[in-house]
Amino acid sequence: MENGAVYSPTTEEDPGPARGARSGLAACFSLARLPWYRRVLKGLQLLLSLLAFICEEVVSQCTLCGGLYFFEFVSCSAFLLSLLLLIVYCTPVYDRVDNTKVKSSDFYITLGTGCVFLLASIIFVSTHDRTSAEIAAIAFGFLASFMFLFDFGAMLFEKLQESQLRKPENTTRAEALTEPLNA
Fold first, then answer.
1. What processes in GO biological process is this protein linked to (predicted)?
2. Cα separations (Å) of 70 from 66, 129, 141, 167?
3. Under a CB-based contact definition with an 8 Å cutoff, are residues 138 and 128 in contact?
4. Pairs from 99-107 (Cβ < 8 Å, separation ≥ 24)
5. pLDDT (tens digit per residue) in 107-162
6. Cβ atoms 89, 174 nearer than 8 A
7. Overall domain count for the chain
8. Within 10 A of 145 (CB to CB), how many other CB atoms are there?
9. Among 15, 86, 6, 12, which Cα is nearest to 45's?
10. Is 80 part of a structural domain of the chain?
11. Is residue 82 part of a domain?
């Protein structure tokens, strides 16, 4: 008997690149772990912090450079932290670490980044030289900081809803508690 006759009814051809649910990089990348509104907020955080950083890098001269340098550091850090969190949520790394630790880290990183980005934007407003690149950087900085704070608010709302669902009902006995247990 030929080998082809034995194996042909039970084996399947190689699906190739056109067939199959997901292949390559797409098999490792999933946005399904975050609700749609959190995906939008994370994407806006990433985009707006990058735009703030790029606009700040275009500034060629400054009179009071301390605010510019602080804004540069914060906008670059915010971009990298939001990229890191998005990578963790969207790759198999999320399955390898404790989910509660990822969510807790995201909660505090988002709050801290939003507050510091807002502070850096306020400081940059008070020290800028009114060039168009600085004004654009400030606008993107404020928008990015608000996206971080909105995301924090969404996570806080989710935490409060989860705690309300987990809270057991308060069932008290109407009977007298002075009765003996073995009576």
1. endocytic recycling; protein transport; regulation of protein stability
2. 6, 15, 12, 43
3. yes
4. 103/155, 106/155, 107/152, 107/155, 107/156, 107/159
5. 999 999 999 999 999 999 999 888 999 999 999 999 999 999 999 999 999 999 98
6. no
7. 1
8. 27
9. 86
10. yes
11. yes
